[in-house]
Amino acid sequence: MESQSGNPAGRPLGAVGEKAELWNQLGEFIVTQGAQRAMEVLAEMENEEFLKNYMTMLEYFKPKQARNVHASDSNSPVIVQIHGNI
C-alpha cells in the first residue's frame, strides 16, 4: 500500500517555495553586489577602522579556529592529535 502526502495537490516535486526563492535571491545579492559594495567601503577606511571591520566580517566568512598553546620540555615532547569533530 503506497502512502499519500498530507497535501496531494501541493507544490510539485522540485518546485521552490516563495520564502526559499527570496532566501536564494538574498544569498545571490550578498555574494555579488553586497560583496562588491563592502569591498569598496572597506577600501576607503583608515587602517584602524578597516582592521576592526575586516576582522568582524572575517568571523562570518571563515570559521574560527581554536588557538592552543602547548608547552613541553626536552624529556616530554608534545603530541598533537587532530580530530575531525572538534
Main attributes?
flat; 86 residues; mainly alpha; 2 helices
Can you walk through the features of this model?
- This protein is mainly α and 86 residues long.
- It has a domain at 18-61.
- It is 49% helix and 0% strand.
- It has two helices and no strands.
- It has helices at 18-44, 47-61.
Estimate the global geometry from the Cα principal axes: flat
Biggest pleated-sheet summary: none
Taken as a percent bin, the fraction of beta residues is under 5%
- Tally of helical segments: 2
Order of helices and strands: HH
Strand count: 0
Q: Could you give the distance between the termini?
A: 45 Å
Low-pLDDT stretches are none
Helix content: 40-55%
* Mean pLDDT rating: 82
* Helix/sheet category: mainly alpha
CA radius of gyration is 24 Å
Explain briefly what this protein structure is:
By secondary structure, the chain is mostly helical. It has two helices and no strands.
